[in-house]
Design a protein that fits this description.
Blueprint: H1 3-15, E1 37-41, E2 44-47, E3 52-55, H2 70-80, H3 91-101, E4 109-113, H4 116-131, E5 135-139, E6 152-154, E7 162-164, H5 171-174, E8 177-180, H6 185-194, E9 198-203, E10 206-207, E11 213-214, H7 217-230, E12 233-237, E13 260-263, E14 274-278, H8 280-283, H9 302-317, H10 321-342, E15 348-352, E16 355-359, H11 368-371, H12 376-389, E17 391-392, E18 401-402, H13 409-425
Parallel strand pairs: 3-17, 5-8, 5-9, 9-12, 12-13
Antiparallel strand pairs: 1-2, 2-3, 4-14, 6-7, 10-11, 13-14, 15-16, 16-18
Helix pairs in contact: 2-9, 3-9, 6-7, 10-13, 12-13
Length: about 425
């Protein structure tokens, strides 16, 4: 029974467009009514009808310890008692910056913002400011937030100028965004031979916004090479994979190193935080040191910083957590695959650290077009039935799943058993 959620959704739709503040929450990809959440406890979500769900979304990634983690909660409460915002520097910003910077050889300085969108938007401005060039290269299927120049889709043909993917974005603002196919080296080479005005290449090195689709090593190495040859900067968008794929994100487990890294999600532990980071030479171009302007009234918000510090400190004190999380993620998707196979359903599964993905298709997708060939109807039925069974998966095949430390092997066993029942009906 989700009667209260159904009513709440109707009421929300009266005053909030589509009843939600971020479109994916509306369940458009899977049908049905989004459940309204009352509270979270560790691995579990409780909706306003008091149904309990094992949560494999974890706020789309930020909650690596699960809901209402005591250490993070305490840090937030203690900090909030001292005032919510000052618009002046606090020690907490330097502390979180140090926590992040010390993890990566390739970055010296970090600037905090309030969302992943803002982090990426600012990183691109910085790359353009540093190089004095205008074009950016983006890969189809990677999501980098909703700023104008990144809301692009491929027109006809590949390696072409992006066309706006949303009304309200002038084509003048997307004409500098060059689109390439993910994991397609030839395509990327063509892009670099077509334009001599490329300021940066931005990529999710482990894509999590077209389902989970990792970039190949060769592909990343080729991007690095082409950037170095042309003087373009390489931006790893680690808003999702940062402190998720490993303690050092994707950057830590890949051979290729970026010039700029963007963060979000886990570094705020559920509070609104984003960040972009780079070498001191590149960051010297950012205001107030340099001329590239960037600002934010609530940037580096003390309560958000406190949540991030508590989360990163706890991760660093328990580095084995990544091993545990990736084992659990692997255990889950292997279980799902086994049961799907028994039911005669083709399921492709993969994990990177605590991120996992599964696709209803016959071969492992390596780019957006291939993900598009998956069986979306089957995914929708699976999602709806699993929700009834008490398992909360991302409501789109284009989203990754997230393991948190609070989820137990018993939770996962229960999930796989439920999935077996569901697969037999699909
Ligand atoms: C979530 C996400 C963003 C956008 O972050 P918001 O906080 O939603 O603005 C950008 N890039 C990637 C890779 C993301 O996963």
């Amino acid at each position: 029974m989700i009667t209260n959620s159904i009513n709440a959704y109707e009421e929300a739709k009266q005053v909030i467009p589509g009843g939600v503040d971020s479109p994916v929450r509306a369940f458009k990809g899977v049908g049905g009514t989004p459940v309204f959440i009352d509270r979270g406890e560790g691995a579990y979500l409780f909706d306003i009808d008091d149904n309990k769900y094992v949560d494999f979304v974890q706020s789309w990634g930020p909650l690596i310890f699960g809901h209402a983690d005591k250490d993070i909660e305490n840090a937030v409460i203690q900090t909030a008692k001292k005032g919510l915002s000052f618009g002046a520097p606090t020690l907490l910003e330097t502390e979180l910056a140090n926590e992040i910077v010390e993890m990566f050889d390739c970055i010296d300085k970090v600037r905090f913002v309030s969302s992943g969108t803002e982090a990426v938007m600012s990183a691109i401005r910085l790359a353009r400011g540093v190089t004095g060039k205008n074009d950016i290269v983006k890969f189809i299927g990677c999501y980098h937030g909703h700023s104008d120049s990144l809301l692009v889709s491929a027109g006809s043909g590949l390696a072409t100028f992006g066309t706006p993917s949303s009304p309200g974005v002038p084509a003048d603002l997307t004409k500098h965004t060059l689109l390439c196919e993910y994991n397609n080296i030839e395509n990327l080479r063509r892009c670099f031979s077509d334009s001599k005005d490329i300021s940066c290449v931005i990529i999710e090195p482990i894509a999590g916004n077209m389902g989970l689709v990792p970039a190949s090593k060769e592909f990343l190495a080729e991007i690095r090479k082409l950037c170095d040859e042309s003087g373009a900067l390489l931006i790893f968008d680690e808003v999702m994979s940062g402190f998720r794929a490993s303690l050092k994100g994707a950057t830590g487990i890949l051979d290729t190193k970026p010039d700029i890294i963007t963060f979000g999600k886990v570094i705020g532990a559920g509070m609104p935080v984003g960040a972009f980071a780079s070498s001191k030479e590149i960051m010297a171009h950012l205001s107030p040191d340099g001329a590239v302007y960037q600002a934010g009234t609530l940037s580096g918000n003390p309560v958000a910083m406190a949540a991030g510090i508590a989360s990163l400190k706890k991760l660093k004190a328990n580095p084995e957590i990544y091993n545990d999380l990736s084992k659990k993620a692997r255990y889950l998707v292997d279980g799902l695959k086994t049961e799907a196979t028994k039911a005669g359903i083709s399921l492709q599964v993969d994990t990177r650290g605590s991120m996992f993905g599964f696709f209803f298709c016959d071969s492992v997708p390596t780019n957006f077009a291939e993900v598009g060939k998956c069986d979306f109807g089957r995914f929708a039925s699976f999602h709806q039935e699993m929700l009834k069974e008490g398992y909360y998966f991302a409501c789109s095949q284009y989203e990754a799943g997230f393991m948190c430390s609070a989820i137990t092997y018993d939770d996962i066993d229960g999930c796989v058993e439920a999935a077996a029942r569901v697969f037999s009906k699909l």
